[in-house]
Amino acid sequence: MAKPKAQFRRPSVSEQLGIEHCQLRLLSEPGDLARCDALIGEHHYLESATLVGEHLRYAATYKGEWLAVVSFSAAAYHRVASASVRNSAAGVCYDGRR
Length: 98
Known about the structure:
Blueprint: H1 13-19, E1 22-26, H2 30-43, E2 55-62, E3 65-73, H3 77-80, E4 85-88, E5 91-94
Antiparallel strand pairs: 1-2, 2-3, 4-5
């Protein structure tokens, strides 16, 4: 039996207009970095925002209000082969805070 084809629904005009107010901001100001670290420390299961090596932090905003934060860090060489690197449906993931 053939797999059912996914149905595509065009976004409404109001949904299309709403995306205009969304932004992904690179955080570089000390106050923004501190806010990002505080949110990660509060909500991340490791309760730590400490990153390894070079790193970037971003905030997803809607009309200036922060909705989410994400950080990326370079993997330390000795950690690349460790259990912190795991396979997932999206590919290989690394959690730099371990």
